[in-house]
Design brief:
nine-stranded mixed beta sheet, D-Amino Acid Oxidase, Chain A, domain 2, 2 domains, alpha+beta, 433 residues, six-stranded mixed beta sheet
Length: 433
């Protein structure tokens, strides 16, 4: 063994780099290992990186609200001593609708009241003023284009809610790199171009990890933040491991196209989570937007092998645009669609797993894709608190740790994110979390 560390974080995406930053600030000697050439070059690089606070659970909303406070002062959060570029964050409100498939936002609005998250009810006249070319009919529930109900208008009134505290990071890979630099500033080290191929134990506790080059790194803690490769890493530590909540790998697709009519008439930045048509959009450069699906009847989940998957857009990628064209008739459907296809690592109930395991010293921060970019800065702090408590003797499975969100003052029970929880019936079971 050539090196000894307190902890090895496996994966240098936005979650892994955040964990490294927080742990190193807390005095841990941390090594981050990733098979790619740099931080944030995996699934993080394809994130739409939208920051919102509307989740189907109180804990998810609280974590996202705390995360927003980190993103809106990203430079202050990082506290970098160098003057290297920092990922920009654009403040943008979130427009969404009360629909049957989101319970008319009853729970989300109640969580917002409890947490102090501001929101406003907007009239149809307000929407027409901001988006004069939009069709504000109700088309839901969302269906794919060959469904007999596609395009049918209902008699329901489109009732909107606006959450002013949101935004997006247009360069998620740079954000992960920023976290790397911030972690290095506190002594963390990074090894790129190598994978973890073994996790060794001594007396039932993690003792070392083995890298693809054959080197063995001594450590007492290993943290699985490997995203789509998370279940493979779990198998290295505990081949027979039992956990009630599992994760799976799916392809997700985001289209990139021009749509001047997506912009507001007053120039304000607004992101759309349109649960009536089952799609979301945010601005990109110029008149371009990024558009993806929130799910629709008839839509098929696309399973993928993280070691061998197709990065080309599938025929299904155009479906969210057909639905978006109902809302924005001037959209126009391009003959050739551009965008990105990448991987999501999602849990059975689309709520992440932030937890210890049956192997002492082995921890998981997985099942995070699609809806946890916004919480990533806080996840590092959360995992540091959990790991520190467990390594000091707390039995988190029997006596779950309570974690205080320092910026907003709320507390959450980390047992909520347990690997052994029952699938949460409150979850949207979608990317909305």
């Amino acid at each position: 063994m050539t090196d000894r560390f307190d902890a090895v974080v496996i994966g240098a995406g936005i979650i892994g780099t955040s964990i490294a930053f927080s742990m190193s600030k807390a005095g841990w000697r941390v090594l981050v290992v990733d098979p790619l050439a740099g931080s944030g070059q995996g699934a993080t690089s394809s994130s739409v990186a939208m920051v919102r606070t509307q989740y189907s659970t109180l804990e998810g909303s609280a974590l996202a609200w705390e995360g927003f406070h980190c993103w809106q002062d990203w430079s202050g959060f990082l506290d970098l001593e160098s003057d290297e570029p920092v990922a920009p964050f654009h403040l943008a409100g979130v427009l969404t609708f009360k629909t049957a498939n989101n319970g008319f936002l009853e729970h989300q609005l109640e969580f917002s009241r409890q947490l102090g998250i501001p929101f406003e009810f907007w009239s149809v006249a307000r929407l027409q003023s901001l988006f004069p070319s939009w069709d504000l009919s109700s088309f839901g529930p969302p269906v794919i284009s060959d469904d007999a109900d596609f395009g049918a208008r209902s008699n329901a009134e489109l009732r909107s809610v606006f959450f002013p505290k949101g935004g997006y990071c247009p360069d998620p890979q740079l954000a992960a790199h920023n976290l790397q630099r911030a972690a290095e500033q506190h002594g963390a080290r990074f090894r790129f171009g190598e994978a973890v191929t073994g996790i060794d134990k001594k007396d039932g506790h993690v003792s070392a990890v083995t890298l693809s080059g054959g080197e063995q790194i001594s450590c007492r803690v290993a943290v699985n933040a490997a995203g789509p490769h998370g279940q493979n890493i779990n198998a290295l530590a505990d081949p027979d491991g039992k956990q009630r909540i599992r994760t799976r790998v799916v392809r997700h697709e985001v289209a990139h196209l021009r749509c001047a009519d997506a912009a507001t008439s007053d120039g304000s930045r607004i992101m759309l989570y349109d649960t009536d048509i089952g799609g979301y959009i945010r601005a990109d450069t110029g008149d371009s937007i990024l558009a993806g699906s929130l799910g629709a009847r008839g839509e098929v989940e696309l399973a993928a092998d993280p070691n061998d998957f197709d990065r080309n857009l599938s025929p299904q990628s155009i479906e969210p645009l057909y639905r978006l064209a109902q809302r924005i008739p001037a959209l126009g459907i391009p003959n050739t669609l551009s965008g990105v296809a990448d991987l999501w690592d999602v849990s059975d109930d689309w709520i992440p797993i932030y937890d210890c395991t049956d192997v002492a010293g082995f921890y998981m921060a997985i099942g995070t894709s699609g809806n946890q970019f916004k919480t990533a800065p806080v996840v590092g702090e959360l995992m540091t608190a959990l790991i520190s408590a467990c390594e000091q003797g707390t039995d988190h499975d029997q006596d779950p740790i309570s974690f205080r969100l320092q910026r907003t003052g709320h507390e959450i029970n980390l047992g909520f994110f347990s690997r052994n929880r029952e699938p949460n019936p409150a979850s949207s079971l979608s990317v909305l979390g």
